[in-house]
Each structure stands twice: as C-alpha cells, then as structure tokens.
Amino acid sequence: MELAFIHKVAEWTGTTTDVSEALTEATLSTLTQRISGGEAADLADRVPDELRPYLTKGQEYPEVFPYGEFVRRVGESTGVDLATAEAGIVAVLRALRDVVGYKEFMDTLAQLPDDLASLAAGGTSRR
C-alpha cells in the first residue's frame, strides 16, 4: 500500500503500520459506501494506485448511515476500539485531503453527515 499515506496515518494515530493500513482500508471502504459512485470515482482518480480499490463502487447511490455507524463499521472491520477507529478515520480523511486537494475533499465532505464532515475538517467528535 502507499507507504507515505500509511505512515501519515500511523504518525497521527500513534498506531503501527499494520493497524494504520487496516484503518486506511476500512475508512476508505466505508467512505465509499457513504458517498455517491461519482464522488468515489473522482476520489479514486486522485489517489495513489494502491488506494484505488478501496474507492471502487458498483452503484451510484450512497448508503445513508450516521456518524456512529461509520465509526462502528471501521472499528468492527479493523478489530480496534471505537476511540482508535475514530482517530483512524480522522487521520485517513486528513491524509486523503492532502492527496486529493481541498476542493475535491470538500465535495466529498458535502455528502457526509455534518458531525463526520466537521470531524474530518478539524472539528471535534459529536458521538
């Protein structure tokens, strides 16, 4: 997987590279479920090749679920506690912003629940 991306996530979460890789995969996959197929494709066009499979979506319509469910899915997928899952989501989304650029990142955030968008943009948890 894209090492610079994973190392950023590891540094920001204080986790190992293996955990950071799992958090990245789970966060991007869950994000893809939550956004439209068009937005997922836009993101996939702007990330390193190794991350693209996690941003591939078979349908256009997003699956609507709240912030808590997003965190639960990432935690369950990675086997980490909810606090670590939340920290991982924030780190992955911030690393994603650095890779895809501000405008594309804001287009993605516009499709997320306000509490998750706020957290990704630098706000605080509302769990």
Question: How do you describe this structure in short?
Answer:
The protein has helices spanning 3-13, 17-34, 37-44, 67-78, 82-100, 102-109, 114-120.
Question: Mind explaining what this structure looks like?
Answer:
With 127 residues, the protein is mainly α. The protein has one domain: Globin-like, CATH 1.10.490.110. 65% of the residues lie in helices and 0% in strands. The protein contains seven helices and no strands. The protein has helices at residues 3-13, 17-34, 37-44, 67-78, 82-100, 102-109, 114-120. It is globular, with a radius of gyration of 13 Å. This is DUF2267 domain-containing protein.
- Total domain units: 1
Supply the number of helical segments.
Answer: 7
* CATH fold call: Globin-like
C-alpha Rg, in Å? 13 Å
Q: In oligomeric terms, what are we looking at?
A: single chain
List SSEs in N-to-C order.
Answer: HHHHHHH
Please report the total strand number as a whole number.
Answer: 0
User: Could you name the ranges where pLDDT drops below 50 across 5 or more consecutive residues?
Assistant: none
Helix content: 55-70%
How would a crystallographer describe the biggest sheet? Answer: none
By CATH, the superfamily comes out as Uncharacterized conserved protein DUF2267
Gross CATH architecture: Orthogonal Bundle
Cα shape: globular
Q: State the end-to-end distance.
A: 30 Å
CATH top level assignment:
Mainly Alpha
Q: Structural class given helices, strands, pairing?
A: mainly alpha
